[in-house]
Amino acid sequence: MSGTDLSHRTDVGGLFRAHYPWLCARLRRHLGASSSVEDIAAETFAQLLESPGLTPIREPRALLTTIAHRLIYQLWRRRDLERQHLDQLQHLDQPQASSPEELLQLTQALHGLDRTLQRLPGKVRATFLLSRIDGLTYPQIAAELGISQRSVSVYMTRSQALCAQHSANEPLHQRSA
């Protein structure tokens, strides 16, 4: 570990101690008393820790708020997608409609995929979600995340490989599609 990495970790640790309670309180205004508050706050600092620490952070609360808002939007998009999918399943004709057990398996599979995606670094996961959930093109994703199109392509390849690995590891009885 280089001196710069250690310094960055120390800086982020100090920011965590100084601003974590503040960030949790701020997130509660958006999310209520949800258990997601602490998850998003922790993920905010994890993403900050993953980012290169080349420049000092002048406005830490503004940066933390920006990262946390992106994570909230990702959470909301994921919940909306799950809700839309469950709504579509409920509106199918009765013979085609899934049983409660199948819906539970599908929900568990979605949560499993979400846990798998959480293993990806922040920008790789964000690239995948912007492409698959929001339908953005590679140039749009590059502009949104401030990365090159080549990085977008590499990140998509990495995330798709992880998803393929996830699918291969899912038990056959859980696959309902």
UniProtKB/TrEMBL annotation:
Keywords from the UniProt entry: Sigma factor, Transcription, Transcription regulation
Source domain of life: Bacteria
RNA polymerase sigma-70 region domain ranges (all copies): 15-80
InterPro entries referenced in this protein's UniProt entry, alphabetically: RNA_pol_sigma-70-like, RNA_pol_sigma-70_dom, RNA_pol_sigma70_r2, RNA_pol_sigma70_r4_t2, RNA_pol_sigma_r2, RNA_pol_sigma_r3/r4-like, WH-like_DNA-bd_sf
Residue ranges occupied by any RNA polymerase sigma factor 70 region 4 type domain in the UniProt entry: 113-159
Similarity comment: Belongs to the sigma-70 factor family. ECF subfamily.
Protein name as annotated: Sigma-70 family RNA polymerase sigma factor
Organism encoding this protein: Pseudomonas hormoni
